[in-house]
Amino acid sequence: MSSVNMNSLMAARNAILNRNNALQDIANKTSNLSGPGQAAPTEKASGPTGFADQLTDAIQEVNKLQATAKANTTAYQMGETNDVAAVMLSKHKASLGFESTLQVRNKLLSAYKDIMNMSV
After folding, report:
1. What Pfam families has UniProt attached to this entry (predicted)?
2. Within a domain: residue 61?
3. Quick check: 93 and 69 in contact, CB under 8 A?
């Protein structure tokens, strides 16, 4: 895969993740508006997250995209929906997320091999 394609894939992945984060922020703000008699939801302690946490979150996000794509495909095959564009879009998002995650994994393995080959 050429570097131009890789850069465009990474840019698209980052755009998707940024949009998802913005939507989650909006959802959190609306869910924090509690009416009378309702308890406000508790939030996790916000602090610096480690690389492992970020990697886990990214993998879970890719898993969610793949599950959504599978559900949309099944719904289309069963005749429950006629929106082929939404099905193809969800499949493309899942594919893009998987490819991006695979490239990150390859870079991590390459960095690990480089570190292991360093002389002390």
Report:
1. FliE
2. yes
3. yes
